[in-house]
Amino acid sequence: MKKLLFFLVLFYTCSAQAQTITSNGSNKINPDFQTNKIKYPSADGGHFELNVPGKKGLEHININYLLSPFPLHDELNFMIGAANPIALSADIFDASGKALITWAPEKPLFRYYCKFDISSFPVGSYHIDVYDANKNKIKTIQFEKI
Questions:
Q1: CB-CB contact of 142 with 65 (8 Å)
Q2: How many CA atoms within 13 Å lie on the side-chain side of 56?
Q3: What domains appear along the chain, each with residue ranges and CATH number?
Q4: CA torsion angle 23 27 33 37 (round to 10)
Q5: pTM of the model
Q6: Closest Cα partner for 76 from 84, 68, 64?
Q7: Alpha helix ranges (H) inside the chain
Q8: CB atoms within 10 A of CB 122
Q9: Which of 60, 82, 57, 78 is nearest to 69 (CA)?
Q10: pLDDT tens for each residue of 55-107
């Protein structure tokens, strides 16, 4: 009985701690985590879901991404991936909507790592549109070149 009680208390304590997001010893909730956006001094990333029909109904695929190194000057490292191989592609646009770079890998992978030369881009706002296998836009990721 004591072992069962100990296990339940331990489980409750671990569950309660799992609900709290901490950073640098603080118990305050990180607002960036709630918006699915993570910012580091040298990188910017986040995640989003892609809903696709599956064998048992609609499947939710979590896709993570990371842009680095910040601040962006000459090179943009773009990592994107999911738990299972998935066909993705992307285009980089300037603020006027002009496509500057198109990226489409040859085969589906679970993680992609791309280096883009952005040294010729003028300082300003840009965005990456991410597409699924059918070329449907599934995410827009904003970034600034300094």
A1: no
A2: 2
A3: 1-35 (no CATH), 36-145 (2.60.40.1930)
A4: -40
A5: 0.70
A6: 68
A7: 2-18, 31-34
A8: 9
A9: 78
A10: 888 888 899 999 998 888 899 999 999 998 999 999 999 999 999 999 999 89
